[in-house]
Amino acid sequence: MGIYSLHLKSNLIMHGDKAIEAAKNIREREVAVTQILNHVRAVITPSMPMVKSLVVGGDFNTNLDQPDFRDEKTLLKLTEAGFRNPLQDAPLLQRITHPGSGRYPAATFDYLFGANMISARPQISPSHASDHYPVTCDFVVQATMPQHAQSAAAAAPNKTALAPNPAPVPQFATITQPVRIKIPYGETVLPRGLKLAVISRDAQSVTVSYLNGTQIIPIASTDIH
Question: Which site among 109, 177, 195, 204 is 20 to 30 Å from 88 CA-CA?
């Protein structure tokens, strides 16, 4: 997994024509995101083929809510490139990362965009440590079958006619009740709504892919019936 951490051009204007300076700020943010996407295509993809999933996160200083940013393409460039914004469907009051002050309204300026991975709902923690609230999010990288395993599977004889097909294993499971699990550095809770890739299942439990490993969780805590 590759991670890009960024802090894009602010909206602060100290001098000059406000409309012209605001347009410059927008253009700087759009160019910065274009540079990241070009780096992915020109450097990461050919030189690091093992990097299949990406996160681009930080202070973007823009959103799709305010009229000042109506024509800005910064966030759209990422979504058009295949990145998903986990905050996209949340109501404004549930995704404020920059509290309002004076003439500046409360806004969503901080994001964690993910590509080729499954994300939970981000958590925004009100804090006075900064003028922005911290945003955290769990991402699950989907495991893919190694090339040698794909070749072996392709070469294996088809035994469909010799035995009945087993019940299909669901591709994903969504957590419906929080589940506490052990991880290498302690414990964590799989939150309600988290979607995980399914490895296998039985009548009582389901094995899912999580943090480059697997976890066995009660099937009753998922949407699998």
Answer: 177
What is the chain's length?
225
**Rg of the chain's alpha carbons, rounded to an integer?**
22
Q: Report yes or no: 199 and 209 within 8 Å, Cβ to Cβ.
A: yes
In this predicted structure, the answer to whether residue 165 has a pLDDT above a threshold of 90 is no
Contacts 24+ apart (CB under 8 A), 189-195: 190/215, 190/217, 191/120, 191/121, 191/138, 193/120, 193/121, 194/118, 194/120, 194/138, 194/140, 195/118, 195/120, 195/140
Q: Distance (Å, rounded) from C-alpha 9 to C-alpha 104? A: 16
192 touches 185 (CB < 8 A): no
Q: Are 138 and 183 in contact (CB under 8 A)?
A: no
d(CA 149, CA 102): 60
CATH 3.60.10.10 domain span(s) along the chain: 2-141
Tell me which of 3.40.190.10, 2.102.10.10, 3.60.10.10, 3.90.1170.50 is the CATH number of domain 2-141: 3.60.10.10
Provide the mean pLDDT of the chain.
Answer: 85
- pTM of the predicted model as reported, rounded to 2 decimal places: 0.61
